[in-house]
Amino acid sequence: MRLNPVKKLVREGGVALGIGQNQLTTTEFPRMAAAAGFDWLFLDAEHGPFTTETLQEITKTCLQTPVSPILRVADFQYDLVARALDGGAEGIIFPRVESPDVLRNAVSWAKFPPRGVRGFGLGAPQVGYQNVAFGEIIRHMNDETLIFAQIESVKGLEARHELAAVEGLDSLFIGPADLSISLGVGGQWDHPKLLGAIDEVVQACNDHGKMPAIHVRNAAFAKVAIEHGMKVVSCAVDLALLWAGVQGVAKELRG
What we know:
By secondary structure, this protein is α/β, with parallel strands linked by helices. The protein has a single domain (5-254), classed as Phosphoenolpyruvate-binding domains (TIM Barrel), CATH 3.20.20. Helices cover 46% and strands 16% of the residues. The protein is built from twelve helices and eight strands. Strands 1-2-3-4-5-6-7-8 form an eight-stranded parallel beta barrel, surrounded by nine helices. Helix 2 packs parallel to helix 3 (52-62).
């Protein structure tokens, strides 16, 4: 069974770089991400058109590459978490997190007893088609499955220390689009309020031994986020990248 690539990289002092898939349902996208050298895939089941079957195909494709599939669920529901993890996701992102109690309950869904209440439904792909002792599978999955709490509102930001203190949580994950809107500076990526919020979340993570994470729209913002201490960074999404390529070709042809 493999170690979680994101957890391993950050533990070794690196920055885990990811890319977003939130519209295209093809398994070619994670293969491209792997070929380009990305460390993880931000698979967005909150906003994307994915079925359970397509999510599993994408996550299982990731498991054949060095790319770690980390999936954002649409809501706080046990079945969404169970299906994602049983399908091969190596991490879960919970959106719109504001309450430590709600988060604590959600974290328990991703951990097997005694650390949580997750039911066993794993298949051979999740253990690399190896003959592994049952108890070792439980221990490994509890240790290597990453849990992210997404900070997307002022209320979530204000609760950052309480959220970061939740046992079993691995990361506070900033959603800058919604957070900037909540702060009253929507889309102003260089606004002091947003940059200050990033610093506050990074500090809370450092204080509680958690990984600070963020998803951004472009490489310039990604570099700024890394300068501010982010350790897990996702940059851009599939359709936006495709659109940029289409625009570039059209401009070149007509230039």
